[in-house]
Amino acid sequence: MAQTATTDPQLGVRRPALSPSRASDFKQCPLLYRFRAVDRLPEVPTKAQLRGTLVHSVLERLFALPKTDREPDRARELLAPTWSELSADNPEWAELFDGEDVQGWLESATKLLDSYFQLEDPRRFDPEACELHVELELESGVRLRGYVDRLDVAPTGEIRVVDYKTGAAPREIGEAKAMFQMKFYAVVLWRLRGVVPRQLKLMYLTDGQSLAYAPDEAELRRFERTLEAIWQAILKAGKTGDFRPSPSRLCDWCAHQSLCPSFGGTPPEYPGWPEPDPGVETALDRAD
Ligand code: SF4
After folding, report:
1. Ligand 1, residues 243, 263, 266: which to mutate, most atoms within 8 A of Cβ?
2. Cβ(78) to ligand 1 under 6 A?
3. For the region Disordered, what residue ranges are annotated (predicted)?
4. What residues contact residue 261 under an 8 Å CB cut-off, 6+ apart?
5. How far apart are CA 225 and CA 227, in angstroms?
6. Is residue 140's pLDDT more than 50?
């Protein structure tokens, strides 16, 4: 995610910000970025994406319960009412199940929750925040914005950033992308709080495994420059409309192959750079 419009409280204007989903899109394939952030072509979510969104929401609600209530059965009980609320807010999601067995799909989400409980016991700690909105402007003027799935802060002040991965893509394909997003959050938290996060933790709920990484300040400094360079590259491409396709295995998950020259398609005419609001990050992006 690279950009979302944000409101500057001092200037009272909406300002573009780089988000991890769109930044990751641009890094993967500039044309994919263009389709999502500039053309804003609609994408029909897959049921796997919706399941990920649902499970993220259930885990957020689970942590809102008293510690002693955070048990597997309680989490499963949250699935149906949480889906009712999500589908009421997004009726087009419910339409994807036209005539299909929603109950069976809900039950498939229990497997992700069961995987979660194999990885940790949520009765043993309280996170500082779930679905935390973070945003700041770097000295270079590049504004970063994102949502952290969960932030744990130890009594000693050590920070752990946690991201739940629920996507259908094989883990080895998504791992570099996931780590990119985690470093993005680490830079934002480091700059906001003056503390380098002690641990970036990815929890893969499809296969019940986790990956932990300890960044250091020099690395985050370099990564910050990478983000600034990505933003400059986006602005440059935005002026000319020169967003080139960059085919990879990830094309299998691209909703826009029919418009992509690498697959024999033709992109729509470039609509121009949509300042000051070049794109938004959705709940589906966040639950990837
Ligand atoms: S199909 Fe592949 S190369 Fe084409 S826009 Fe999508 S991600 Fe990029």
Report:
1. 263
2. no
3. 1-22, 266-288
4. 31, 245, 267
5. 5
6. yes
Share of the chain above pLDDT 70, in %: 88
Give 157 or 282, the one with higher predicted confidence: 157
Among protein residues, the one whose CA lies closest to atom 2 of ligand 1: 251
Task: Round to whole Å and give the CA distance between 14 and 18.
Answer: 13
* Class of residue 236 by CB neighbours under 10 A (exposed 0-12, middle 13-18, buried 19+): exposed
Tell which atom from ligand 1 comes closest to the C-alpha of 30: 8
Question: pLDDT tens digits, residue range 228-254?
Answer: 999 999 999 999 999 999 999 999 989
Residue 63 lies in a domain: yes
Looking at the DSSP bridge assignments, the partners of residue 162 are 150, 201
Question: What is the C-alpha to C-alpha distance for residues 131 and 149, in angstroms, rounded to an integer?
Answer: 5
Token pair 């570099």 is found at 176
Split into its structural domains, the chain has a count of: 1
- pTM passes above 0.90: no
Task: Answer yes or no: is 72 within a domain.
Answer: yes
Q: Is the pLDDT of residue 275 over 90?
A: no
Q: Whose CA is nearest to atom 3 of ligand 1?
A: 247
Task: Judge whether residue 284 has pLDDT over 80.
Answer: no
CA of 34 to the centre of ligand 1 (A): 10
For residue 108, give its domain range. 47-123
Average pLDDT on 258-275 reads: 93
Has residue 146 been placed in a domain?
A: no
Residue 93 lies in a domain: yes
Closest-CA residue, ligand 1 atom 7, reads 251
